[in-house]
Every structure is written in C-alpha cells, then in structure tokens.
C-alpha cells in the first residue's frame, strides 16, 4: 500500500570539482577521456510537518584540503528552500566519506541515521589500509563517535522504514555500509542514490566509479535501485551536473543552486 502523502524532494548543490576527467570517473578508465566535472549535493525531503536531510557535505577547510571548490555552505542552500539546518531533527548519512558527513555544527538538533556496517567499516581493521581509508577523514569519524555517545545516532541494518513513505536500503559497493533512500513522491517512488551511482552514466552503462569497496555489490546496487524506483528517471545520482539540467529550479533565482526532483523533468 502506497502512502497517501507524497514528499517534496530537492537537490542542493554546494560544491564543484571542475578538474575531474572521464578517466577518473569509471573503474578501468575511459577510452574517450575528457572533462567530466563533479557536482556535490545535499538532498532535502520535505513533508507537511517534518523534513529529512540526506548527507551534510563538507566545509571550506575540507574544500581547501581536498582541492574542491566550495560554492556555498549547505545550510545556505537549504535556507533558500525554506529549511533551517539548526531545526532539522533527522539527518540520513548515505555513508561516511568526507564529502557526505561533515559540517558537524550545522544540525545541532539532529539524530543521525547510519548503517551498522558503515560505522563498523570506518572504525575497524579496513582503515589500516591507506587505499581504503583515503575517502574518510578521522575528524569526521570521531565526530560521529561523539554523537553516538551523546545519544544522537540511530543505526540501521539493511532495510528500515524511517517514516511512512521513506525507507533506507543498504546496497554497499562504493563503501561497505552505503545506503540509498527510497521516497514516495507525486511521481511515484524515487531513489536518492548518493554514491551508489555518481553519474547517470555509471548505472546506465554498468561501469562503477573507481572508489569501490566491492565491485560486485556496486553493480548489484544498480539493479536494486531499478527495482525500488517507479521509473528509470526517478533514480537520482550523487554527483552528476546533469541533475541540474534535467530538473527545474526549486524557485526563481535558484537556478544552479537547488532543483525540485519530484517535479516533472525539464523537456529536452
């Protein structure tokens, strides 16, 4: 039975990496190398009386450290669509890579929703290997441990219903505990993929992004998302600038900043 009240869903762009190339966005490279920049987003799920945020991005210090262009604090983009970060009570973390779990002080009232496997992964023996711990930051991980001891973390194992019309689904692949979010909207069920597919091309061509914990799980994750979504164009990748081109601005003046994902895609 489908929920009766659909959610509004937004993608809020906060950073950019203009230097990225096609060869760096597919496991095994790409024979047609050239520019293929990444955008960085946080996502907002708005209900009639409650909002949920998916991922929290990074700050200016991390942008400088990682060589990324910070366009705005994620809280500014959220404010533009009517969400005060300091009033948000639920934050979903798709995984614990640096570009998805920073900005610790922006959400002081929030409970964080995380897969058991992701916390075990980023605090366990796999972090002994530089090749696996590279996308993580020690400060991000220890900040999450502090939230845990403050009673602000809720763990999930596999599939969980967070609220009517919102479910969390572990897919793994890119990171061991990566989860995607299924949301009921006026266009049916939408899947916010985050890094389960960085670009439309990753899932459409069956070619994984090169940062990967489990290649098989990544490929199976594409199939899982297709089963969860009502339609193919209702799967939203995590870093693709095409998202801004395919969906309308959330409001006049927010072009290039925030788009409305539950609206009909832009023609052409």
Secondary structure blueprint with pairings:
Layout: E1 8-17, E2 38-46, E3 51-54, H1 60-66, E4 69-70, H2 74-80, E5 90-92, E6 111-115, H3 116-122, H4 130-133, H5 138-149, E7 153-156, E8 159-163, E9 166-170, E10 179-185, E11 188-194, H6 200-205, H7 215-228, E12 235-237, H8 242-246, E13 258-260
Parallel strand pairs: 3-5, 5-6, 6-7, 11-12
Antiparallel strand pairs: 1-2, 1-4, 1-13, 2-3, 8-9, 9-10, 10-11
Task: Describe the protein in words.
The chain has 268 residues and is an alpha/beta fold. Helix content is 23%, strand content 25%. The protein has one domain: Ribonuclease Z/Hydroxyacylglutathione hydrolase-like (Metallo-beta-lactamase, Chain A, 4-Layer Sandwich), CATH 3.60.15.10. It is built from 8 helices and 13 strands. The strands form 2 sheets. Strands 1, 2, 3, 4, 5, 6, 7 and 13 form an 8-stranded mixed sheet that branches. Strands 8-9-10-11-12 form a 5-stranded mixed sheet, with helices on one face. The protein is globular, with a radius of gyration of 17 Å. 44% of the residues are buried. The model has no long low-confidence stretch (mean pLDDT 96).
